[in-house]
Design a protein that fits this description.
350 residues, alpha/beta, Rossmann fold, 2 domains, seven-stranded parallel sheet, six-stranded parallel sheet, 17% strand
């Protein structure tokens, strides 16, 4: 089976890491792979380490040659710009394509977007919420739910020890997300204000950067909070998962929430908002705690509950490990194989 994966993002965030993980798994399973990627992305450097055919395309209008997909069975699209590359390639050289959608925003009602999605052979959403959004715009398209799988990170114990010393004798809560409005950091800070009065030993470390940072820092200063730290974007997440006591993810909207899966994989208890795809991961009181989005009091109460109830922490950790089975890369890769094979079989009989 020969698959052409397309990801034209210029950065290297969660979507690119998940694409890379699927590619790595498929190589282990004996796939032949072609990868079309943006030369500006660190994703390219990772692909160069693998046994893939690599095509560099700085724009979706670039690199349209018959030879690129001549013996490919399916083009697999992984982000928004890539869908237009697949549309052009498919129209010119008659190769079917599928789209994995990772965000839970409503699909744009624009002619080019509609054309690209309606010409796909299948559409995949990472969560029930994303699948619902796809069906709202394209109710007649073949649609599947296939979640992403957690990425694992290495751990350097010396780094973990440094974090422990910095936050010694404190219950360390981390929120690992870009500082963007929909990630819910304002709710976190409102919860921190409540927690400062409830328990002085709980500290929240914000791991990320973004457009909301200045506003959030001002809010912390105005509230005179001493239990919140802004630590910027981190490139050693494994160390933070190993050092922390709890991960929170109180987003207002979320495609799935892969960082929650990563924390579960590191045996951290988790708290998330009842929004987007997060409930696909967290079964409340079983694999984590769910709170309503924008409810600072509920978030503060949940953090306090986890911090002060060790049996609950252990229960959530065990529940998280059990929940991870349905997100294992071997399983999700098998779901994609079924989709690919259905398309291949369908072309043979048409």
């Amino acid at each position: 089976m020969h698959i052409c994966h397309v990801n034209l993002a210029s950065g290297f965030s969660g979507g690119e890491r998940q694409t890379l993980q699927l590619i790595t798994r498929q190589l282990k399973e004996g796939y032949k792979l072609t990868v079309v990627a943006n030369p500006k992305s660190p994703f390219v450097d990772e692909i160069k380490k693998l046994n893939c055919k690599l095509i560099l395309a700085s724009h979706f209008s670039k690199q349209h040659k018959k030879t690129i997909t001549a013996d490919c069975d399916v083009i697999h699209v992984h982000e928004g710009r890539a869908i237009y590359w697949a549309l052009i390639q498919s129209k010119r050289f008659n190769v079917p394509y599928i789209v994995t959608r990772r965000i839970d925003n409503p699909l744009k009602n624009k002619w080019l977007s509609n054309l690209a999605y309606s010409n796909a052979t299948a559409l995949i959403g990472l969560s029930n919420e994303i699948v619902d959004k796809i069906k709202e715009r394209h109710p007649n398209q073949v649609t599947y739910k296939i979640p992403s799988s957690p990425v694992s990170y290495s751990v350097e114990q010396d780094n973990v020890d440094t974090i422990w010393r910095r936050f010694s004798n404190q219950f360390l809560v981390i929120q690992a997300a870009n500082l963007l409005h929909h990630k819910g950091h304002e709710t976190t800070i409102e919860a921190a204000k409540l927690l400062q009065e409830m328990d002085s030993n709980i500290h929240i470390a914000l791991l990320g950067d973004g457009s909301e940072r200045e506003k959030l820092e001002s809010l912390v200063k105005d509230y005179d909070l001493h239990n919140v730290s802004f630590l910027g974007k981190q490139n050693r997440m494994g160390d933070w998962f190993a050092a922390a006591d709890l991960l929170i993810h109180p987003s207002y909207s979320e495609g799935l929430g892969s960082v929650i899966l990563e924390a579960m994989g590191a045996k951290l208890p988790v708290i998330g908002s009842n929004a987007g795809g997060i409930p696909d991961i967290i079964d409340d009181q079983e694999s984590g705690l769910l709170v309503e989005a924008k409810d600072a009091q509920a978030l503060a109460d949940a953090i306090y509950q986890v911090a002060t109830d060790k049996p609950l922490r252990n229960k959530l950790i065990i529940g998280g490990q059990e929940k991870l089975a349905m997100f294992d890369i071997k399983y999700t890769s098998s779901l994609y194989r079924d989709v690919y094979q259905t398309i291949i079989d369908g072309r043979k009989t048409s």
